Structure formats: C-alpha cells, structure tokens
Amino acid sequence: MQQSRSQVSTHDGLYELEPGQDVLDSPRFNEDIAPTRRAERTWRSVHIAALWVGMAICVPTYTLGGVLTAYFGLSVGEALFTILMANIVVLIPLTLNAFPGTKYGIPFPVLLRSSFGILGSNVPCLIRAVVACGWFGIQTMFGGLAIHLFLGSLFPEWKALGGVGEVIGFLLFWALNLWVVLRGAESIKWLETLSAPLLLVVGVGLLAWATPHMSMSELLAQPAKRPEGAGVTSYFFAGLTAMVGFWATLSLNIPDFSRYARSQKDQVIGQIVGLPLTMFLFAALGVVMTAASASLVGETVADPVSLIGHIDSPFWVALAMAFIIIATLSTNTAANIVSPTNDLQNIAPKLINRTKAVLLTGLVGLLLMGHELLKKAGLIVSDVSLESLYSNWLLGYSSLLGPIAGIMIVDYFLIRRQQLDLPALYLDGGTYPAINWAGFIAFGVPVALTLLALTTGLLSWFYSYGWFTGSLLGGLLYYVCAGLTKRNLVAAKATA
Q: Does residue 411 fall inside a structural domain?
C-alpha cells in the first residue's frame, strides 16, 4: 500500500525522496522531474569533465577568438587570456548552482520553485527554454552541414544537391539529437564519455595539420584592431562579459546534470577539470586554424566545417566530418535539449512528459530555423544571414538571464541556508507560494534597466557589462525583498 505522506532520507549528505500519495497525486509532479534516487546518481568527476569537453568542443567555441579580435578590439593574446578568465569566472555560478541539484537531486525548474514560486517558476523557465531552442536550431544547422559534406565526400551525386542536401542533413541531424535525448540521461553520459577523447584527438590532429603553415610568434605579435593608443581595460571587460554570457544559460540549468552526480566533490572537480582548459585550448585552436587557413586552402576561413570541406581528399573530409558530427551532437544534446525538455514539463507535468517535451523542443528549434532552411532549399531569396537573424539576438537575449543566476544563488545559500523542503517543491499551497514576488521584483528591475539601456542609450554600461550588473543587482534586490518577506512572515506568526 502506498504511503500517504512523502518521506525524505539522507545518505552521505545527499537527500532522497520517497514520494507518497501527496506528491504522486500533485499536478506539479511527474517521474521525469522527480528527485533522482541514489541508484541514478552515477556520474563521477570523469563523467562531469567529459560532459564539459563534449559541450565545449563545438563550432561556436572555435570561433570565439576570432570574434574577440574582430569585434572587441583585442589582440590574439588578449583574446585567449579573456576566454580563459571568462571560463574561470563562470565556474563560480556554475558550481554554486550545481550544489542544490546534487544535494537534493532536483532539476533546474524545480529548484526555481523556491525563488520564483511553484507557478511563477514557469516564467524564467520559458525564458531559458527559448534561448536553448534557438541555439539548438543553430547547432543543428552546423551538424546538418557536416552531414551534407560527409555524404558529399562519399557520393558525388549527393554533393550536387547543394542547399537541398544541407536541408536533408539538417533534418537527419535533428532527428538524431532527439533520439539520443529520448533515450535518457545514461545515453547522454555514454555519448559524452565516448566523444570526449575522440574530440581531443581531432583537436591535436588539426593542430598538427595547421602548425607548419603559420608562425605562432607572428600571430601573437599582430596588433589589436582598436584605435591607436586606446587602453585595453574597457575592451577586455566588454569581451569578458560576452564570453561569460557564452555559458550564461548553462550556469542556470546546471542542476539538470548535477542531480546525477555521486557527490558534491565529483561535480566540483569535474567542472573545474572539464570547462576552463577545454574552452581555452579549443578557442586557441580556432585562432591558429583561422590564421593558417590562407596557406592551407588559399583563403581565410573562420568556420571549421567549411575549412575542412576545402580539403581535396574525400577520405580525410569524411573522417573529419564524422568527428564534427559527434562533436556537435554531444554539444547539442546536453547544452540545448535537456534544459527546455525539463522546462516545458514544468508547465504541466501531468500532461507533458519527457517524450512530449523533447518533441516540442525539436519543433520550436525547427520553426526558428525555418527561414534559413527555406533559403537553403531555394524556396525564398533573402540577404538576411543566419548570424544576424539569430545569433546576435540570442547573445543579447542571454544577457537578460544574469539576474536569474544571482537570485538562485542568494535564495539557496543566504535565504534558505541550503535547506529546502523537498516534498513541498512538488505541492501547491505548502511551504512555497504560487508566485514569489521577491523573485519577480529582483528579476524585473535589472531587465527593465537593460531594456532602457538598449532603447535609449542611457546607462549603456549596464548593458555592456550585463551579465555582471544583472546578476549582482538581481541577487542584491532578492536578498532585500526576500529578507523583508521572511521577517514579515515571522512577525505575523508571532502575533497570531
């Protein structure tokens, strides 16, 4: 007979929920967003590190150095230092937000119920989900191009398909991504663990190919593209903010993965080992390969997929594209599908299970790429590029997520003192309100200031350093508002 009330037990500092009828019957619960059990917490530090290797080695990481030198006025050396520092900085919110996921086994949307309310959590969840769906579409476009070039290197008839072949490649890669995620967390762990060493080998191989065709000393000696005599400080901090924003979304939903970690030690060591060095080395590889591309293929090419496509040997093109497909698959499944899958389930857990949420994520990503797919298929003519239409919007949109990170950290460590009522996170009318207005005030004020800076030019510094200003202001406002709410509740109980 099923017990009526849920029970919570602890083992080595990790909490486990034995759901009773109260939680099982709740409209806020299903098995996919339930706290992980001890048997499901199988990810060691090596798996967490492999997760980050798999996510960090991707086409956007490859191009980061070029972005900083071309658009942020930094030299090559300054750009690489900025990337390294940004990933050390982003480790702070990543590691802190991973703690409650590991301790209580809960995913990102359930954790948000503490700071935004049981129903209110859907607002930041959906904001995060839209960003992920957009990046899912962009990464799938890269993966589809790799499949097209892979098949084109093997079959000349396929190469003749041109843009239509890219569209078919997109759809094939899209379906492959959804299949991996539908198989569950163990499938993702297996993919990341398999791909990590393969991707590192590919990086070394590309470096060996490029090294004879460029001089590292000459590359580092190239002057920065900024006004003569201009100081580096403002350019550095602008670039640092942009690079922190690169993993801004993952610093929010890291509980989606840390809930499977065996211990806090495993998640901390795995992230420290896996993220900063991998990002730095692969971004450095991108700088080297771009600099060497003129000698390698006769023109400067910043996109690794296109660069490898210039190789004359069908064998090496096919092999390289196979690795890029694996790299993009490992990034896309973990970084861009897991989060919206959980976020969408949070809306109505009894109606939307993991399968439905994965399919919804895939549909939204497909629709967001509809314009680009129609253009590649030759059905429309447009001068709007994929980068200008989606990437710039998504990067700016990601800056709005900074306050959520600050709110989550302050709520868990300062307001809740690392103590959550685990069953109540799945119940209406309990410890946590339907809407936590402290969270919405702390989120709304920084977002309003960001929009003011964008539309009027006032407080432009607030947007320029958006992740830092947003997260710090959001956290501070939440501490004040939540603290006042807590004191008022204590006073009300005392006088009752």
A: no
Name the residue range of residue 222's domain: 39-381
441: three-class secondary structure by DSSP: helix
Q: Is the dihedral of CA 110, 115, 117, 122 positive or negative?
A: negative
Tens digit of each residue's pLDDT (9 = 90 or more) over 283-328: 888 877 777 777 777 777 777 777 777 777 788 778 778 878 887 8
Distances, alpha carbon 232 to alpha carbons 33, 77, 240, in Å? 46, 12, 12
The C-alpha atoms of residue 88 and residue 254 are separated, in whole angstroms, by 16
Looking at the structure of the chain, the number of domains it has is 1
Of the candidates 244, 247, 299, 225, the one whose C-alpha atom is nearest the C-alpha of residue 74 is 225
Greatest alpha-carbon span in the chain? 82
With a pLDDT cut of 70, the percent of the chain lying above it is: 94
pLDDT average, residue stretch 437-454: 92
Question: Residue 135 maps to which CATH number?
Answer: 1.10.4160.10
Residue 352's H or E segment, with its range, is none
Confidence of residue 72 (pLDDT cuts 50, 70, 90): confident
Residues in contact with 317: Cβ distance below 8 Å, sequence separation at least 6, in sequence order: 149, 150, 153, 308, 309, 311
Q: List all residues 6 or more positions away from 259 whose beta carbon is below 8 Å from its beta carbon.
A: 35, 36, 41, 101, 102, 104, 105, 106, 107
Cβ atoms of 446 and 402 within 8 Å: the answer is yes
For residues 62 and 282, the answer to whether their CB atoms sit within 8 Å is: yes
Confirm if 327 and 57 have CB atoms less than 8 A apart. Answer: yes
Residue 394 predicted with pLDDT over 60: no
Query: HSE (CB half, 13 Å, CA atoms) of 18?
Result: 8
On whether residue 25 sits in a domain, the answer given is no
CA distances from 33 to 107, 348, 349 (A): 6, 11, 8
Give the DSSP H/E element, type plus range, for residue 354.
helix 354-368
Total-model pTM: 0.88
pLDDT of residue 2: 59
Phi, psi of 10 (to 5 degrees): -125, 145
Beta bridge partners of 15: 10
**Which pLDDT band holds residue 490 (cuts at 50, 70, 90)?**
low
CA distances from 412 to 49, 268, 481 (A): 25, 17, 14
- Does residue 468 fall inside a structural domain? no
* Sign of the torsion formed by the C-alpha atoms of 398, 403, 408 and 413: positive
Sign (positive or negative) of CA dihedral 319, 60, 264, 24:
negative
At 311, give phi and psi (nearest 5°). -65, 140
Chain CA centroid to CA 202, Å: 23
Task: Note whether residue 22 is domain-resident.
Answer: no
How far apart (Å, rounded) are the C-alpha atoms in residues 274 and 253? Answer: 17
Interatomic CA distance for residues 333 and 194, integer angstroms: 14
pLDDT digit string (tens) for 3-62?
Answer: 788 999 999 899 999 999 999 999 999 999 999 999 999 999 999 998 888 888 877 787
